[in-house]
Amino acid sequence: MASRDLTGVLLVGGASRRFGSAKALARYNGTTLAEHAWGVLGAACQERMAFGKAQDELALPFPVHDDGIPVRAPLAGIVAALRMAENDVCVFLPVDLPYATPELVRELGEACRDAAVPPRGPLPGAYSRSAVPVLERRLAAGELALRDALLELDTVTVEVDERLLVNVNAPEELAALTVPGSAGERGGTMLA
Question: Would the pLDDT of 189 be above 50?
Answer without folding.
Answer: no
